[in-house]
Amino acid sequence: EETCEFRLYTRETITADDIESYVEISAEEQERSYRFTLAAATGAFTLKDAMYAPTSLHLAFAHDQSEMVAHFNTGAEGTPIVRYGTSKKHLTSIATGSSTTYTASDLCQAPANLEEPGKFTHPGQLHS
């Protein structure tokens, strides 16, 4: 089972008076004039079926309004399968789709493409 942990970071602004701190941080952090410090963490915990449970469900009409498009996210790779029908008891139709994702390196510039606390967060798998 997958585990996760929530973490809270504080952002500290570095000033010219903070010269000792400049020695402790990277050149990239010096250029931004701030750094992050871990303030609190929950500890590891598990969420039942968290990798596979769909989130962020979006339904929309397709170009042909007699059709619909479903988009959702999960943490798992693979081919998405959607069962649908006229009621919960009659989910007799099945559709398969495709999955994709992106990483920080796919984004244009900072701060969006920085992999540090408070910046890029992996979106999981985007299914349609």
Textual characterization of the structure:
The two termini are 25 Å apart. The longest helix is centred in the N-terminal third of the chain and has 6 residues, at 19-24. A hairpin with an 8-residue loop joins strand 7 and strand 8. The mean pLDDT is 83. This protein is 9% helix and 36% strand. By secondary structure, the chain is mainly beta.
Radius of gyration (CA) equals 21 Å
Distance between the termini: 25 Å
Assess the beta-strand content as a share of residues: 35-45%
**What is the approximate shape?**
elongated
Number of helical runs? 2
Number of strands: 10
Low-confidence stretches: none
Helix/strand-derived category reads mainly beta
- What is the string of helix and strand elements? EEHHEEEEEEEE
Give the strand order of the largest sheet, numbering strands 1, 2, ... along the chain. Answer: 5-6-10-9
> What is the average per-residue confidence, as pLDDT, rounded to a whole number?
83
The residue fraction in helices comes out at: under 10%
Q: How would you characterize the largest beta sheet?
A: 4 strands, antiparallel
Notable traits:
128 residues; mainly beta; two-stranded antiparallel sheet; 2 helices; 10 strands; 9% helix
